[in-house]
């Protein structure tokens, strides 16, 4: 969206496409929370430290190195390259956040075993995290209400930890047709507000204003929660193989998609019209999907190659 002037003919379509997909990262974390906080799963501090964090940490280091090399090849700027190497490309913040959620999972698991305690924690998150992020765009930075909310310093459910717990909480709700419709209405309202709010604020600012795209606001929470509940209610057991494939490919698609988008921009294939925008979306998705399929195939081969060696070492010990 930043590549188009706000008042260009193509900007509204880009805004709509972008607004409809804002729930992607929160959904990743909600699914992770639904799995990691499940009391029936034996997820201990030892497992988190020895298995889950290193697995994601290796992925983070690998992709930080990849994007740092790309940054160096393009800019030859050592400072920017080192910044990318340490903090990652613009979209890799998601991996740092996920590792953070993994680390606090042992503290959250006792909370979610008590339904009243879990919903109390989410209520505090809604009041002290979601509410101020949602209303701050309508108020002055020095507004007394915002200052009052921040004065309590209740940060238990701050940031994406809120979505991590919310994902598990929503798995505990019974789903029927009426609730699915309600979830759909909530997701629709959230999406419409994101799109219209971004459009209006950006026109006033003269450039992309992402205030309504803040991940921990009410509108994205409605979009993400609605989609989560609808997918739960559909019970897509017949598509289990397809869903498993999507699950395997989604992370590498997310990791690599800026490279394909950058290539399209470099080749000047993205023009300010609807056809070129849609074609660009399709090309990025197709390229990233093919890469993700190859990437997962290589990982499976590496696991099969190294696992027997590790197994023999453990048996000898």
Q: Concise description?
A:
The chain is mainly alpha-helical and 317 residues long. It has helices spanning 11-19, 24-36, 45-75, 78-87, 93-112, 115-135, 144-151, 161-171, 177-205, 218-234, 240-266, 274-316. Helix 6 packs across helix 8 (161-171).
Can you characterise this structure?
Mean pLDDT is 89; it is low at 310-317. It contains twelve helices and no strands. It has helices at 11-19, 24-36, 45-75, 78-87, 93-112, 115-135, 144-151, 161-171, 177-205, 218-234, 240-266, 274-316. The chain is mainly alpha-helical. The relative contact order is 0.12.
Mean pLDDT over all positions? 89
Shape: globular
Radius of gyration of CA atoms, rounded to a whole number: 21 Å
Report the count of strand segments: 0
Structural class of the secondary elements?
mainly alpha
**Which regions are unreliable across 5 or more consecutive residues at pLDDT < 50?**
310-317
Helical amount among residues, as a percent range?
Answer: over 70%
The number of helices is 12
Give the percentage of residues in beta strands.
Answer: under 5%
Order of helices and strands: HHHHHHHHHHHH
The largest sheet, given as strand count, sense and whether it forms a barrel, is:
none
């Amino acid at each position: 969206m930043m590549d188009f002037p706000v008042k260009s003919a193509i900007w509204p379509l880009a805004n709509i496409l972008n607004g409809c997909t804002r729930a992607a990262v929160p959904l990743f974390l909600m699914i992770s929370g639904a799995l990691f906080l499940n009391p029936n799963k034996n997820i201990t501090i030892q497992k988190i430290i020895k298995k889950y964090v290193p697995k994601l940490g290796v992925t983070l280091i690998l992709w930080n190195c990849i994007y740092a090399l790309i940054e160096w090849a393009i800019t030859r700027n050592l400072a920017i390259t080192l910044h990318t190497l340490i903090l990652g490309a613009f979209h890799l913040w998601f991996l740092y956040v996920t590792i953070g959620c993994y680390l606090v999972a042992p503290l959250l698991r006792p909370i979610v075993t008590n339904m009243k305690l879990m919903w109390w924690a989410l209520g505090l998150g809604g009041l002290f995290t979601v509410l101020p992020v949602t209303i701050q765009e309508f108020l002055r930075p020095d507004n007394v209400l915002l200052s009052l909310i921040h004065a309590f310093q209740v940060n238990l459910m701050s940031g994406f930890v809120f979505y991590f717990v919310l994902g598990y909480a929503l798995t505990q709700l019974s789903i029927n047709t009426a609730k699915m419709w309600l979830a759909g209405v909530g997701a629709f309202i959230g999406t419409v507000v994101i799109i219209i709010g971004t459009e209006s604020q950006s026109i006033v600012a003269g450039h992309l204003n992402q205030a309504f795209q803040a991940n921990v606001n009410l509108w994205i929470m409605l979009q993400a929660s609605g989609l989560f509940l609808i997918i739960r209610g559909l019970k897509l057991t017949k598509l289990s193989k397809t869903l498993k494939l999507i699950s395997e490919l989604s992370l590498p698609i997310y990791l690599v998609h800026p490279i394909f988008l950058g290539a399209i921009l470099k080749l000047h294939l993205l023009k300010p019209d609807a056809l070129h925008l849609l074609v660009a979306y399709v090309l990025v998705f197709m390229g990233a999907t093919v890469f993700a399929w190859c990437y997962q195939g290589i990982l499976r081969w590496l696991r099969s190659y190294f696992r027997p060696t590790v197994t023999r070492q453990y048996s000898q010990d």
